[in-house]
Specification:
4-stranded antiparallel β-sheet, 4 strands, single chain, alpha+beta
């Protein structure tokens, strides 16, 4: 698996996020691009699934210990909300050939 230039030694799979995973205006707030053997999948999380407080804390530099604790709690809360949902209810995906 590859993320920003690192390659998984056995699978040959590559994964690359957009230069800024926090914001890509033309694609939405969260944009990920995966490629494998000539197939490219671009994925965005639909609006409303990522809460404003999470985005604000995740972007903040120099978070305090309390803010780190809150961010961890928000991550768990988001996981608990999103994991039970069907992927098509959370993500928009576009598949293409490279």
């Amino acid at each position: 698996m590859r993320r920003e230039g690192a390659r998984h030694p056995s699978s040959g799979t590559s994964v690359r996020s957009a230069p800024s995973p926090w914001h890509r205006p033309s694609k939405g707030k969260y944009y990920f691009r995966f490629s494998y053997r000539g197939t490219v999948v671009e994925v965005t999380i639909r609006p409303g699934h990522v809460r404003g407080e999470f985005i604000e804390l995740a972007r903040k530099e120099g978070r305090s210990a309390e803010e780190e604790t809150r961010l961890a709690a928000l991550k768990r809360e988001m996981r608990d909300r999103l994991v039970p949902l069907a992927p098509e209810d959370v993500y928009d995906a576009k598949v293409s050939r490279a």
